[in-house]
Design goal:
Mean pLDDT: 82
Structural class: alpha+beta
Order of helices and strands: HEHEHHEHEHEEEEHE
Oligomer: single chain
Largest sheet: 7 strands, antiparallel
Helix content: 25-40%
Distance between the termini: 65 Å
Shape: globular
Low-confidence stretches: 9-32, 36-56
Number of helices: 7
Number of strands: 9
Length: 260
């Protein structure tokens, strides 16, 4: 009789452990990011695999002095500046924007430097649950697709003017400023930042990106690591994590800026 009671007790304990584990997995708060890729629609509206290699891709233009001057003043007036993330978050906790949809850059009238357009589509999809086509964004009054890509300033103006979210652009930030802004954008406002960078494998990046735009959809702890959606990455390199230090190196290699 005692043996049967003991066996039943052990069985109940094992069931409770399994239920607890499943609950943690379902919550997703303390796990690595698990993004949801877009469905394959077979047209330019949504493309999972871009026709690029996982090497240099390009598509992001360095900021002009006029753009930097303008956005420096705009950020100081942004009401979100008073709500920068100050909460101490456990090192092992990911804050995920889930489900997050990936859009790949694809050629427009022969121009393949459309990573900025794809980034805007990801942000629009996150906030609105739908997104304009690549062509609609390119043909908007806010955005100019140059032969070598787009300016961050144009992307931010598009998002702001079309009521998506009041983003601010930041240029030449130090690592502390960049980390705090990106973390606040994700944790305090659930707003995926767009980051202009030049990622290099010899500086800890998983691939050489060229001057490029990516979107962050998750942050670990208080900015220890960021998960990125890469418009030009193929296969598993559509999604990857980088440390805050490596992300800053890639950002600091060029003067493209980031939007938060």
């Amino acid at each position: 009789m005692k043996t049967n009671i003991f066996k039943r007790t052990i069985t109940l304990m094992l069931m409770l452990v399994l239920l607890s584990t499943n609950s943690i997995i379902a919550s997703g708060n303390n796990l690595s990011p698990t993004p949801t890729p877009s469905p394959r629609l077979g047209n330019e509206n949504e493309v999972n695999f871009a026709p690029f290699s996982n090497t240099n891709t390009g598509g992001a233009l360095e900021a002009t002095q006029e753009q930097m001057n303008y956005w420096a003043g705009q950020e100081r007036m942004n009401p979100r500046m008073s709500a920068l993330e100050t909460e101490i978050v456990p090192f092992s906790t990911w804050h995920n924007l889930h489900p997050f949809t990936h859009f790949a850059q694809t050629a427009h009238n022969g121009n393949s430097n459309t990573c900025g357009i794809a980034s805007v589509r990801m942000v629009h999809q996150w906030f609105r649950g739908w997104t304009p086509t690549q062509a609609q964004i390119i043909n908007s009054p806010e955005v100019t697709l140059h032969p070598t890509g787009t300016y961050l300033s144009d992307l931010v103006r598009y998002l702001n003017n079309n009521g998506v979210f009041p983003y601010a652009a930041v240029f030449r930030a130090n690592q502390s400023t960049m980390t705090s802004r990106l973390t606040s954008s994700l944790r305090s406002f659930n707003a995926p930042p767009i980051i202009g960078l030049n990622g290099r494998t010899d500086q800890g990046f998983p691939r050489n990106t060229g001057n490029h735009f990516v979107v962050s959809y998750s942050v670990l702890g208080n900015g220890l690591e960021f998960a990125l959606a890469d418009p030009a990455g193929q296969g598993s390199l559509r999604w990857y994590d980088v440390t805050a230090a490596n992300l800053f190196r890639a950002y600091d290699n060029v003067n493209i800026g980031f939007a938060w």
